[in-house]
């Protein structure tokens, strides 16, 4: 599958099942509205901080569904996955969060250190702080590139340790070619940003804009991107690893959702 096919397939994928797109949109809306209310009205009542609970749960469900999207894409499904086994989806979301935390901790620490040096100290310290921040951004970029394949590897095996198998992750990227892999991620990110800009403009419409972006635009963006991640990962599979060739290793979507 070439770049055009991956992008074309990923564009069609979110709207292949509007019901599931909208269910994901409702989850996004719960998260977004909870945070909006907290930011705008907690000065009126501190009790509104309890809305952090639905916001957190909804965010974890979103991440879990994103992981499930990668998984079912690898399995060869052509529609977004069903909303089943919510507790498993919540746990999958926690896995996603932990992997992101593991990968991003070091670059974030470097960025914070550089930022602190930039704000305080002599001119030389500020310059050094700026360099440290640039280093942190570079590390964050490299980590982000690797983390895409790491998360997909975790989705494939269904275990968090698979996201830390750096040798296997490196081998999979090399099977595509680092340049092809990075170029594809850049193209996907550009498309993602363009959609995000459009969504941001729609969200400027009072209330209705927020609802529309949460129900349709944001879910579309997530499904587009994670479908693409799954398709990229499929390109790295050896013949013996391929779902159609190894039914005893990978489940069908029905089996996956029932576990």
How would you describe the overall organization of this protein?
This is DUF4013 domain-containing protein. The chain crosses the membrane at residues 21-41, 47-65, 97-121, 127-157, 178-198, 204-224. With 259 residues, the chain is mainly α. It has one domain. 76% of the residues lie in helices and 0% in strands. The protein is built from 9 helices and no strands. It has helices at residues 3-12, 18-41, 52-74, 86-119, 123-157, 166-176, 178-203, 208-234, 253-258. Helix 1 (3-12) packs across helix 8, helix 6 crosses helix 7 (178-203) and helix 7 (178-203) packs antiparallel against helix 8 (208-234). The radius of gyration is 20 Å and the shape is globular. The relative contact order is 0.15. Residues 245-259 have low confidence and may be disordered.
Produce a short descriptive summary.
It contains nine helices and no strands.
* Number of contiguous helices: 9
Rg over CA atoms, rounded to whole Å, is 20 Å
Q: Domain count, please report it.
A: 1
Mean pLDDT: 88
